[in-house]
Each structure stands twice: as structure tokens, then as C-alpha cells.
């Protein structure tokens, strides 16, 4: 797992061997201990280069080992032995040096990086801190403010930034190992006294207390209840205020609280779930590893509203030639300006030239005749989309993929409007489409394997986390949102306020509660959908029957607000009030509170005290219950798909792992018991009736989440 050879006569070359990222498994750690010992004791060896196999230095500690019984040498003494050695050690960094990988490099006396390498301490994203002395060495090397930034955000830096910060000593465009070997030959025999980072005094910036208070406030605000960023600040503070050995002890104590925490488990689950969704499969047998995507050099976007603009930008930034079609002149003018602004800002952020020349505009749909793939992002209306798909089917070249950005409509029905339904898939982006990481790729009954594979690959190229899902109303994300929002409405009827519901959800970790979110996205969006579903009845009818639609409980609260022209932020009024239309700061609205009182009185509802626990249980368990239905129906292949969708698209706090993981953490038996309790209290709410898959999982002993697929498979094989 680590091999020593001698190159250039006197340089010991240690190669880490643990594909694909040379993670520091027990075997690799043992290999490093053994080879370092050998190199230090071999008189032929005057200096040492450590590198990773296959162009990757090291992706850090082996995350798969966490949560298991750890064996093998510990990282800290291993790295100390390297630093304390009396021969110069040079890290040759190609690919990535992350987490324990960078900590290993910081134990070396010199670091040489390839210009394309990325370095960082991303432990915080896994619910941990750099506990192989990284939190103590990095501030000593680059100063407290820069170290705080890197350690609390976990961001990866380029080799150029690493050089500027002082993390690496040399950056090369040539062969990194050759360069590092030359470097090692040059420094052989030189004193190492000034090269051992743990012996450096930590630079103490003026206003140290204010600096840490500020850092703590910042992380508390952005962490939304995550504990690791707070521990990271505390660890760096220890580096700045304590001698090295004491700082190390503090780092160990802090790590001990994080290591076995539920948050660390949730974040590490998310890491693997994000990768697992790339190994997609569909019920028809299509799979990620056997399906061949077709190349897509040229694509078109139809409809340049908010979504279309974002999609066009995302495609152009990926390097595709884009034809952007909009038939309304005014919309086209506005879109051109908005798109060029987005491209410019994006280019500035990424330090590259804007790619405006990648997009050509047309008011004529015939301009899409030669593209390889079309994404329609027109108005969310089935009749409009039906007509468009009929046109596209006639205009596009043979084999061109036809994709819909619908957020809920029937992909099979749209496919049926075309001559080649196998070429139709959903590509459901999330607003703003050039920023949000999530993409739901919706396969229909007749979508070809190649069409799904192409959409998934295009999503990946665009930097999206793409999840393949089946076709149903709302797909995965929006389908689960429905019972969640419904419960929030019922809670208002029963005595809660939007403020109370939102506070409970935001304290749980959502970036925005359901009502603030709904004000942001526009209340009219859901109103239009409910109208389309025949649920909206205008007016102020009273009595119990006014709150029943299609035989089940219904809350017309959202419809009543829309009737008043309260569409949320855009009109300056919604569930909250705003300083002006388009305003962002939500303020409590006395009108809304008296409206709710009047509503309850009219319907004979008596307000009762509702606490945060009930808000969370009703909203979240209803959403989770729908997730179980989605798994049961085979719309999502596994719980990871649902969790990734919620974490990347719906603001679910990552440190809680996604709704299905959260259900497992709470305990499936408890979720079942609470759903039964609430369903008994509200028998007219079908979404509270526990799903049979949940019952089955509880009956089979509530297996851990990675075993759910077995239970689901058995369930499907019995059907
Ligand atoms: C009491 C104990 C004290 C211990 C002290 C601990 C201090 C140190 C802690 C750490 O080091 S925690 C780990 C920190 N490192 C990271 O967070 C990096 C994670 N990896 C990545 O960001 C990326 O994988 C990459 C290295 C940038 C490469 O990206 P790429 O897109 O090329 O490949 P991926 O698809 O992401 O990964 C390929 C494959 O490798 C698996 N993998 C990646 N990193 C690790 C790892 N550190 N441990 C175990 N496995 C890893 C990844 O899961 C993929 O496999 P599959 O999941 O697809 O099977």
C-alpha cells in the first residue's frame, strides 16, 4: 500500500498505492510508517519524495473506515515521524491533497505541486475537523485568518492560490515527481530546523479576540446548527493561543465530540450518497455502466423566462453551442441583457473570459433544426407544451433528444405527442438553473437508455448532481413537497402562525421555512397548479365542507391569499409583508394574523397551542412518508436518491443527511408511531396514513438505510 524505491541515486521515492484516491487506509498508514522508517535508516537515501499513485497525491483519511473499528497506526504519530526525521521530505502533489492528505504534506518539510492540483482541508464538510494536526499546523504556516477560512469552509484551493498563501513551495507545469526529485536533491543535507511547521510560533494577529468572535458569529450564522464549523474555529483558536502540544490535545478533544456524532454520520452518508446517485439504474434495466450517451455539441433552449435563461447560461458555460429561442420580443430583449450579465458575473467569479459567443438567439423555433438536444422551458401549461413537442418532433433532426424542464407534468404524455417518444426525457432544473446543483432526470415509460444516459452525462458536464427518477406528478422533489406544505397550511388552521412554523423549520436547519420560501417563489405558482387540478373554489365559503375537496381535507388558505393579490415578495405581501414589491426582508404582518383569526372563526376552528415538535413531526414525517411511497412505487431507486434531491434542491440541512436518512436516525418505529398518532387525529388526511413500506421496514427490524433496497426489492418481487 506504500512502496519505497530509490531514484536519482539518493532520493527515496515513497508511492502511496490505494486507488482511486490513495485514501489513508490502515494498510496505507502502515505502509507509510514502514517505508519512512526504511528510508530514514538507509544510508544511501539522502532525501525523500512522497507521491501518490496514478496522478493523485492523497484524498485524505479513508472515510469508509470511520464508524468501523479503527486499526493500524494513527495518523498523528505517523506524520510526526516524517516531520521529525533528519532527511528532507518533499511532498509531490498531483491531483488532490485533501484532508489527511494535506496534513501528511504539511508534515513534510517541502511541498511541490502541479499547477492543476487542488488542496484543502474539507473535513468540516464531513462533520469533522483536520485532526491529524492540520488545525494546528496550517495556522502556523499561513496565518490565522487564511487558515480559519480554509478550515471552516473546507474549500479546495488551486496550486496557484496555495503558492500565494504559502502552503506549497513550488508549482510546476511539468512532471511533478521529476520536479520534486530535483528539489529533493537540492535540499539534501540542508538543515531542517526552519522547516518543521509544528515548531513555528503561530502568528498572532492584533485583535485576536475580535477576530475569533467574528469568525464564530459567521460560522454560527451559516452553519444552521452544524457543530463541526464551530469546533473548527475552536481548534484554530487553540493553535493561536496555546503551545503546539496543548493545541494538539484540544484538537483531539474537539475531534472526539465530532467523530461519533450523528451529524458526522449524516454528512459522511451524504458524501457517499452523492456518488451513489451517479450509479443510476431504471426499472427497465438501463444502467449507468452499460448505457452509452450520445455526444451533445449543440443544444437549444426554448423559452427565455427565469428558468430558460439560467439553463442557457449553464449550457454555454459547459462549452456547448446554444441556440436560445424566444418568440416574444420584449421577453427576448430582457433575456439577452440578463443572460449576458449572468455570463459576465460567472466569468469574473471563475477568472475566465465570458462565453457570450456560445449563445445565438432566435425568435423562430425553426432555428433548432440542427441541434442535438432541446430543452424546453416554456410556460408550465400542458396545452402549450403539447403543441411545442408536436412542433419539435417535426422540426428537429433525426435522433435529437427532446427534453422538458417541467417541474411536475406528465413526461409520458409529452412523449406521446412526438414521433419518437424514446427520445423524450425530463430535465428538471432548479432555479436559478445556472447556480443550483440539482438536476432531476426524469425517464418516461418509453425513454431510451441512450436518452437517459445522455441527459445524465450532460448534467454531470454542467456540474450538476443528476438524479435519475421515474415519471409521476411532481417527480420526487415536488411530490414530497406537497404533503409538507399541506401540513403547514393545516397547522395555520389549527392555531399556528407562519412565524412559528418557519422558526421551527429554520431551527431544524432549513435555510428558509415553508412560508418564507413560498413568498420567495411566489404563491401564484401553487395556485395555478391547484386550479389546474380543479381544487380552487373562489370565495369565502364557510363551514366544514368549504375545507374538503375531492373527498379529503383541503386548506384554501393559499388560494384566499392569492385572491387578495398577495403573491409573496413580488407583490410585497404574502404570508409576510415586505417593505416594497420585490422586497426581501420578511416582516410579521398583523393583517395576516387577523385574517387567520377571521378564517378560523368563519370555519368554527378553535386555535390551540402548537409547539415546534408538532410542527416538525407533522411537516417532516408527512414528507418522509411520501418518500416511502416514492420508493415503494419505484420512482426513486433508493433512499440516497431522495436524500440527494432534498439536500441539493430543497435546502434540507446536509448535516441531517436528507429526509430518509433522518427518518432512520429518528428511528423508523418512532416515525411510524407518530404518523399513526397524527393519522388517528386527522383521518381525513391520507398523507398521514403510514406507507406500507415503512410498516414493512419496521416489521423487519428497522434495518440500516443501506439495507432498505433489499426490502424494497423483495416488496417489488412480490408484486
Ligand atoms: C480518530 C481518528 C482520527 C482521524 C483523523 C482524521 C483527520 C483526517 C480526516 C480526513 O482526511 S477526512 C477525508 C477528507 N477528504 C475528503 O473529504 C476528500 C474526499 N474526496 C473527494 O473530495 C474526491 O473524491 C476527490 C479526491 C476530489 C476525487 O474526486 P473525483 O471526482 O475524481 O472522484 P470521486 O468520484 O469523488 O471519488 C472516487 C471514489 O473514491 C472514493 N473516495 C474519495 N475520497 C475518499 C476518501 N477520503 N475515503 C474513502 N473513499 C474515498 C469515492 O467515494 C469514490 O468511490 P465510490 O463512492 O464511487 O465507490
From TrEMBL:
Residues 474-578, 615-702 form the 3-hydroxyacyl-CoA dehydrogenase C-terminal domain. Pfam families: 3HCDH (PF00725), 3HCDH_N (PF02737), ECH_1 (PF00378). It comes from Sparus aurata (Gilthead sea bream). GO terms for molecular function: (3S)-3-hydroxyacyl-CoA dehydrogenase (NAD+) activity; delta(3)-delta(2)-enoyl-CoA isomerase activity; enoyl-CoA hydratase activity; NAD+ binding. It comes from the Eukaryota. The keyword Phosphoprotein does not apply. The keyword Transmembrane does not apply. This is Peroxisomal bifunctional enzyme. InterPro entries: 3-OHacyl-CoA_DH_CS (IPR006180), 3-OHacyl-CoA_DH_NAD-bd (IPR006176), 3HC_DH_C (IPR006108), 6-PGluconate_DH-like_C_sf (IPR008927), ClpP/crotonase-like_dom_sf (IPR029045), Enoyl-CoA_hyd/isom_CS (IPR018376), Enoyl-CoA_hydra/iso (IPR001753), NAD(P)-bd_dom_sf (IPR036291). Pathway: Lipid metabolism; fatty acid beta-oxidation. In the C-terminal section; belongs to the 3-hydroxyacyl-CoA dehydrogenase family. Belongs to the enoyl-CoA hydratase/isomerase family.
Amino acid at each position: 500500500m506504500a512502496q519505497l524505491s530509490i531514484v536519482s541515486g539518493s532520493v527515496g521515492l515513497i508511492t502511496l498505492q490505494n486507488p482511486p484516491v490513495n485514501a489513508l487506509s490502515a494498510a496505507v498508514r502502515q505502509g507509510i510508517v514502514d517505508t519512512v522508517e526504511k528510508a530514514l535508516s538507509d544510508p544511501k537515501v539522502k532525501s525523500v519524495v512522497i507521491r501518490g499513485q496514478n496522478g493523485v497525491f492523497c484524498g485524505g483519511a479513508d472515510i469508509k473506515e470511520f464508524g468501523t473499528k479503527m486499526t493500524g497506526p494513527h495518523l498523528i504519530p505517523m506524520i510526526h515521524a516524517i516531520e521529525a526525521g533528519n532527511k528532507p521530505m518533499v511532498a509531490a502533489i498531483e491531483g488532490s491533497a485533501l484532508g489527511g492528505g494535506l496534513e501528511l504534506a504539511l508534515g513534510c518539510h517541502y511541498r511541490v505541486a502541479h499547477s492543476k492540483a487542488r488542496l484543502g482541508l474539507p473535513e468540516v464538510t464531513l462533520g469533522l475537523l483536520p485532526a491529524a494536526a492540520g488545525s494546528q499546523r496550517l495556522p502556523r504556516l499561513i496565518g490565522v485568518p487564511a487558515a480559519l477560512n480554509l478550515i471552516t469552509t473546507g474549500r479546495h484551493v488551486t496550486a496557484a492560490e496555495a503558492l500565494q498563501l504559502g502552503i506549497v513551495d513550488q508549482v510546476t507545469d511539468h512532471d511533478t515527481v521529476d520536479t520534486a526529485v530535483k528539489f529533493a536533491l537540492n535540499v539534501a543535507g540542508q538543515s531542517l530546523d526552519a522547516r518543521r511547521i509544528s515548531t513555528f510560533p503561530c502568528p498572532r494577529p492584533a485583535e485576536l479576540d475580535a477576530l475569533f468572535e467574528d469568525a464564530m458569529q459567521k460560522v454560527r450564522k451559516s452553519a444552521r446548527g452544524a457543530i463541526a464549523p464551530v469546533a473548527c474555529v475552536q481548534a484554530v483558536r487553540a493553535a493561536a493561543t496555546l503551545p503546539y502540544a496543548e493545541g494538539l490535545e484540544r484538537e483531539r478533544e474537539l475531534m472526539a465530540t465530532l467523530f461519533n456524532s450523528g451529524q458526522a454520520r449524516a454528512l459522511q452518508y451524504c458524501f457517499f450518497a452523492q456518488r451513489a446517485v451517479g450509479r443510476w439504474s431504471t426499472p427497465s434495466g438501463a444502467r449507468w455502466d452499460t448505457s452509452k450517451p450520445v455526444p451533445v455539441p449543440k443544444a437549444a433552449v426554448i423559452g427565455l423566462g427565469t428558468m430558460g435563461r439560467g439553463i442557457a447560461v449553464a449550457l454555454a458555460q459547459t462549452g456547448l453551442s446554444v441556440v436560445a429561442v424566444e418568440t416574444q420580443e420584449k421577453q427576448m430583449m430582457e433575456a439577452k441583457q440578463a443572460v449576458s450579465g449572468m455570463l459576465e458575473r460567472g466569468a469574473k467569479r471563475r477568472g475566465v473570459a465570458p462565453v457570450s459567443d456560445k449563445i445565438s438567439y432566435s425568435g423562430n423555433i425553426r432555428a433548432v433544426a440542427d441541434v442535438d438536444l432541446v430543452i424546453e422551458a416554456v410556460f408550465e401549461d400542458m396545452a402549450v407544451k403539447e403543441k411545442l413537442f408536436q412542433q419539435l418532433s417535426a422540426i428537429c433532426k433525426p435522433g435529437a433528444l427532446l427534453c422538458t424542464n417541467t417541474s411536475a407534468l406528465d413526461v409520458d404524455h409529452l412523449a406521446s405527442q412526438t414521433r419518437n417518444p424514446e427520445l423524450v426525457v425530463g430535465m428538471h432544473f432548479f432555479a436559478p438553473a445556472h447556480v443550483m446543483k440539482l438536476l432531476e432526470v426524469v425517464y418516461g415509460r418509453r425513454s431510451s437508455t441512450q436518452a437517459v444516459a445522455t441527459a445524465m452525462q450532460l448534467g454531470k458536464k454542467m456540474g450538476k448532481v443528476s438524479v435519475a427518477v421515474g415519471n409521476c406528478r411532481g417527480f420526487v422533489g415536488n411530490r414530497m413537497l406537497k404533503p409538507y406544505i399541506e401540513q403547514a397550511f393545516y397547522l395555520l388552521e389549527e392555531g399556528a402562525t407562519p412565524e412559528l412554523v418557519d422558526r421551527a423549520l429554520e431551527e431544524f436547519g432549513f435555510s428558509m421555512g415553508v412560508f418564507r420560501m413560498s413568498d420567495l417563489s411566489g404563491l401564484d405558482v401553487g395556485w395555478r397548479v391547484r386550479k389546474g387540478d380543479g381544487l380552487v373554489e373562489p370565495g369565502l365559503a364557510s363551514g366544514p365542507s368549504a375545507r374538503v375537496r375531492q373527498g379529503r381535507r383541503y386548506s384554501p388558505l393559499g388560494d384566499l391569499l392569492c385572491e387578495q393579490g398577495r403573491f409573496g415578495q413580488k407583490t410585497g405581501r404574502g404570508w409576510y409583508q415586505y417593505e416594497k414589491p420585490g422586497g426581501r426582508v420578511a416582516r410579521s404582518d398583523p393583517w395576516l394574523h387577523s385574517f387567520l383569526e377571521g378564517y378560523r372563526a368563519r370555519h368554527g376552528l378553535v386555535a390551540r397551542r402548537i409547539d415546534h415538535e408538532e410542527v416538525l413531526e407533522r411537516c417532516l414525517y408527512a414528507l418522509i412518508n411520501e418518500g416511502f411511497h416514492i420508493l415503494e412505487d419505484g420512482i426513486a431507486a433508493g433512499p440516497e436518491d431522495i436524500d440527494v434531491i432534498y439536500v441539493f434542491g430543497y435546502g434540507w440541512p446536509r448535516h441531517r443527511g436528507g429526509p430518509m436518512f433522518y427518518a432512520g436516525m429518528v428511528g423508523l418505529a418512532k416515525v411510524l408511531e407518530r404518523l399513526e398518532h397524527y393519522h388517528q387525529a386527522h383521518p381525513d388526511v391520507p398523507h398521514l396514513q403510514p406507507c406500507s413500506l415503512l410498516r414493512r421496514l419496521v416489521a423487519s427490524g428497522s434495518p440500516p438505510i443501506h439495507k432498505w433496497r433489499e426490502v424494497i426489492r423483495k416488496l417489488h418481487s412480490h408484486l
